[in-house]
Specification:
The complex is a heterodimer of chains A (about 160) and B (about 425).
Chain A (H helix, E strand, L loop, with lengths): L4 E6 L9 H8 L8 E6 L3 H8 L4 E8 L8 E5 L6 H5 L8 H10 L6 E8 L11 H19 L7
Helix pairs in contact in A: 1-5, 2-4
Chain B lengths: L3 E5 L9 E8 L2 E9 L5 H6 L7 H6 L6 H16 L5 H32 L4 H7 L1 H22 L8 E2 L2 E2 L5 H26 L13 E4 L10 E4 L4 E2 L4 H4 E5 L6 E5 L10 H8 L5 H9 L12 H22 L20 E9 L2 E9 L5 E7 L1 H16 L8 H13 L20
Antiparallel strand pairs in B: 1-2, 2-3, 4-5, 6-7, 7-8, 9-10, 11-12, 12-13
Classes of the chains: A alpha/beta (about 160), B alpha+beta (about 425).
């Protein structure tokens, strides 16, 4: 793969488990091929769009709240289909990850490979620490990301 | 006529989380309530005991969309407490940084959040399918705002370069030159934006608001000025508490601000700023406003999208003016000592113009410069009473609309204010369809 590759860790570190995406991004420091960019973002859609612009592959990591067991990790192939949130037209905040992906798709600038790792959060209270269940999920996501970025063809989508 | 309840549990396209409930009975609006799940006063508590110098970076974390506003109100309040004045190129750089935030924030709201309401789309995504070029223009305009934040603020989200007394590091003149080229393009795009939104089908509704905004002797206000109203108020930031109060309302965890004298609602933000400072806009922005059909006062909140576009044009124009006249300062900041002014405990007040309106900070400092007490009054809590009054008075005139269109109109009415509701929650809510 020769095009630009980027990992985007999304979240707000002041809101408990919401910050996990950024912690995953930090955990990748020094563990990925040198050409892979790793950035942190607060989740605002147009900023995500700008990060993804021109990338051949984008890997996004965010916390989610779907009612599943805290710490549950799910992988979505966003290049193949919208995230479930967008499919149901629900959004709790103005303009975030799901919107960024759909806006990029509408503008035909979605990276050919666009993968989202969603980590189920336990709590999103302002000022709360990361929950144990979510902290324990970080190494798993780190491992899976390293693996699929090194060998993208081996990962089914 | 039956009772009708319009309930929107999670409102899309407002920054943060909010819920809206309007109850209609016999053709009359019985109640209109906007619930705001604001983080409890977490940041005010977090500030207690910290050094005065930490306030800009801590308060910048309150809002991902308007961190500069929080930083600016914080540094001005601290400088007020410590008797420090920042002027010349450092003052200009602060205005430049604010220009970047307005371009970014207004660009996001005008194109991505509000325009779909006027063009009949559910979202910017749907709009992008039919109007890709327009959406790209909005994205590019906003990006120029980000570039200013990166050049002056150190990075595009949560700028880290601002400190009490000035900056950690100031940009070189040549660093700003490439921005000038970008800004010329952005200014053209902003002018096109004014023309674009002026052509929208805008509801014709007006109320006699109490407008509150900063006013400066010779500038359209960002950082400095007296707090004035169209009803004769003219005070320094230090007198804010004597004229405004925050009260708890049952349906919202956020506080609502009202005029202390009579408990009435007031309005901050683009409409207020524009109506109180039309004569301070640049000639280009004034001319564009006139061509867009705006008078020197605007009382129609549905026209706020046009006013935001005019302010975006002004911000591009002003940023260019600042860059063209920029001289590198001798030092990136003026010295600030906790005891510089008083040698004993001091209180400082700061009010600046966030994109959404007046943002007031008050800090009480101990003699060692640590923060004894902090108060932050964001624009959205000041506007909340006006938003509810808008819903109560305008919705009645839209009751002939079918339910879905009526609900949409209510949401649009809230979005007129670009409410920054919880300022900082960005998790992804997933609703899984399980078999």
């Amino acid at each position: 793969m020769s095009g630009r590759r980027i990992v985007i860790g999304i979240g707000n570190p002041d809101r408990g488990d919401d910050g996990v995406g950024r912690l995953v991004a930090r955990s990748l420091d020094g563990r990925l091929p040198a050409d892979v960019e790793v950035v942190e973002a607060d989740g605002e859609a147009t900023a995500l769009l700008a990060h993804m612009d021109g990338a051949e592959a984008a890997y996004l990591v965010d916390a989610c709240a779907s009612g599943a067991e805290p710490g549950t990790v799910r992988r979505f192939d966003a290049a193949a289909a919208p995230l479930p949130q967008a499919a149901f037209g629900l959004s709790t905040h103005g303009f975030g990850l799901a919107e960024a992906i759909e806006l990029a798709r509408a503008l035909r600038q979605l990276p050919a490979r666009c993968v989202v790792y969603a980590i189920e959060g336990a709590g999103f209270e302002t000022g709360a620490p990361l929950s144990d269940a979510v902290a324990e999920a970080i190494p798993q996501v780190q491992e899976r990301l390293c693996c699929e970025i090194e060998q993208p063809a081996d990962v089914g989508s | 006529m039956a009772r009708k309840t319009i309930k929107v549990d999670y409102m899309a396209r407002v920054e943060g989380e909010g819920a809206l409930k309007v109850v209609v009975r016999d053709g009359k609006v019985q109640s209109a309530a906007l619930s705001i799940f604001e983080p409890p006063r977490f940041f005010e508590a977090l500030l207690r005991g910290r050094a005065f110098s930490e306030a800009p970076d801590i308060t910048a974390r309150i809002c991902g969309i308007c961190p500069v506003a929080y930083q600016m109100s914080a540094v001005h309040a601290m400088e007020n407490a410590l008797g420090v004045a920042v002027d010349g190129p450092l003052r200009d750089l602060r205005r430049l940084l604010y220009c970047g935030e307005w371009i970014e924030s207004h660009g996001l709201h005008v194109y991505m959040l509000h325009a779909p309401d006027f063009l009949g789309y559910d979202s910017a995504i749907h709009m992008a399918k039919d109007h890709g070029d327009v959406v790209r223009r909005g994205l590019d305009l906003k990006k120029v705002g980000n570039e200013i934040l990166t050049a002056v603020g150190g990075r595009e989200i949560h700028p880290i370069n601002v400190k009490v007394g000035g900056f950690y590091k100031v940009p070189r003149r040549r660093d700003l030159q490439h921005l000038a080229e970008r800004l010329k393009g952005a200014r053209d795009a902003a002018l096109e934006t004014v023309r674009w939104v002026a052509g929208f089908d805008i509801p014709d509704r007006e109320r006699d608001y109490t407008f509150v905004a900063l006013r400066h002797p010779d500038e359209y206000p960002f950082n400095e000025g007296r707090i004035v109203s169209n009803r004769g108020l003219d005070i320094a930031a230090a007198e804010y508490d004597a004229h405004f109060q925050e009260i708890h309302v049952r349906h919202s965890t956020a506080l609502q601000s009202r005029m202390r004298a009579d408990g009435s609602a007031y309005l901050v933000g683009p409409l207020a700023r524009y109506s109180l400072n039309f004569d301070r806009l640049s000639p280009l922005a004034r001319q564009a406003a006139r061509e867009a059909g705006l008078g020197s006062t605007c009382r129609n909140p549905y026209q706020s999208i046009v006013v935001r576009a005019v302010e975006t044009l002004y911000a591009c124009d002003e940023a260019l003016r600042i860059i063209e006249s920029y001289r590198e300062p001798d030092a990136p900041a003026v010295p600030v000592e906790p005891r510089a002014a008083t040698g004993y405990a001091a209180t400082g007040h700061g009010a600046t113009e966030a994109p959404r309106g007046l943002l007031y900070h008050r800090y009480r400092l101990e003699a060692d410069g640590s923060i004894a007490d902090a108060l932050i009054v964001p624009p959205t809590s000041q506007n909340q009473a006006s938003i509810e009054e808008d819903l109560a008075s305008y919705v009645e005139s839209f009751l002939d609309l079918p339910d879905e269109a009526l609900q949409h109109r209510c949401e649009q009415t809230v979005r007129n204010y670009d409410p920054c509701i919880s300022c900082a929650t960005h998790f992804l809510r997933l609703d899984m369809d399980r078999e």
